[in-house]
Amino acid sequence: MKRQLAEKRGRQGEGRAAAWLQLKGWRIMGKRVRTPAGEIDLIAKRAGIVAFIEVKWRSKKADLDHAIDEYRLSRVAAAVEAVAHNYATEGEDIRVDVILLAPGSMPRHIVNAWQP
């Protein structure tokens, strides 16, 4: 039951993050893209940049600081390697971003969060 609630909140967070990105001029190209290496929550494109985005929702703003770590980012990066060629064309920049969400606060967008 707890897992189902977390899954539902995660999906809602991804929807909110996608809507927020669209307001900022991003075009959403993919949601919940599954690869053998893992899942990419959102894929968005704007002005020659393709961002592969990990979305984290926490019930308390204070918990956002611990929502993402190097291990999770490395899994997203591995998933990106598997599908980047399907979303980015030559000359476009590719990056891994993170969007952190909590009730009552603006989304926190960490640009280029993964630097191997």
- The overall pLDDT average reads 92
**Main sheet summary:** 5 strands, mixed
Radius of gyration: 14 Å
Strand order of the largest sheet: 1-2-3-4-5
Number of domains: 1
Low-confidence stretches: none
What is the CA–CA distance across the termini? Answer: 36 Å
N to C succession of SSEs: HEEEHEE
> Strand share of the residues?
25-35%
Total number of β-strand segments? Answer: 5
CATH architecture: 3-Layer(aba) Sandwich
Global outline: globular
Number of helices: 2
Protein name: UPF0102 protein I5L03_08570
Family: Belongs to the UPF0102 family.
Pfam families: UPF0102
InterPro entries: Restrct_endonuc-II-like (IPR011335), tRNA_endonuc-like_dom_sf (IPR011856), UPF0102_YraN-like (IPR003509)
Write a structural description.
The protein has a single domain (2-110), classed as 3-Layer(aba) Sandwich (Trna Endonuclease, Chain: A, domain 1). By secondary structure, the chain is an alpha+beta fold. The termini are far apart. It is built from 2 helices and 5 strands, in the order H-E-E-E-H-E-E. A hairpin with a 2-residue loop joins strand 1 (27-35) and strand 2. It is 34% helix and 34% strand. A 5-stranded mixed β-sheet has the order 1-2-3-4-5, sandwiched between helices. The radius of gyration is 14 Å and the shape is globular.
Secondary structure elements and their pairing?
Elements: H1 2-23, E1 27-35, E2 38-46, E3 49-57, H2 70-87, E4 93-101, E5 108-110
InterPro entries: Restrct_endonuc-II-like, tRNA_endonuc-like_dom_sf, UPF0102_YraN-like
Protein name: UPF0102 protein I5L03_08570
Family: Belongs to the UPF0102 family.
